[in-house]
Write a sequence for this structure.
């Protein structure tokens, strides 16, 4: 069974930065499309960023373009989400996801989620 463990969430002020990490077990991330989703209270879970298994093609939701960057370190089997210029509307639980069709497919595997709270 694939295991995805996220870390790096927290409480920050608007304009600050955070880096989320997702380390995979029983999955080689270089063979899987990986992504970050988020879910705010009362809203549906939605994709924030994704990185295709082959090459370096990436996808970003319009709301985070130019502020967030997804990357992966295959040697560490870890995916990152660098979040800059954070805004209060970025507040959500962020989930790492694996094994889905780039970029709009439904993931087969999810992490437990990490809370990101941005205060104004």
């Amino acid at each position: 069974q694939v295991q995805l463990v996220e870390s790096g969430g927290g409480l920050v002020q608007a304009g600050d930065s955070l880096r989320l990490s997702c380390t995979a077990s029983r999955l080689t991330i270089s063979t899987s499309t990986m992504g970050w989703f988020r879910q705010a209270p009362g809203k549906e879970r939605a994709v924030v960023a994704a990185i295709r298994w082959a090459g370096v093609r990436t996808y970003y939701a319009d709301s985070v373009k130019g502020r967030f960057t997804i990357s992966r370190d295959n040697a560490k089997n870890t995916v990152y989400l660098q979040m800059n210029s954070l805004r209060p509307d970025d507040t959500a639980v962020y989930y790492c996801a694996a094994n889905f069709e780039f970029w709009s497919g439904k993931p087969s595997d999810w992490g437990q989620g990490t809370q990101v709270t941005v205060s104004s």
About this structure: The CA atoms of residues 37 and 48 lie 5 Å apart. The longest strand covers residues 18-25. The chain has a mean pLDDT of 96.
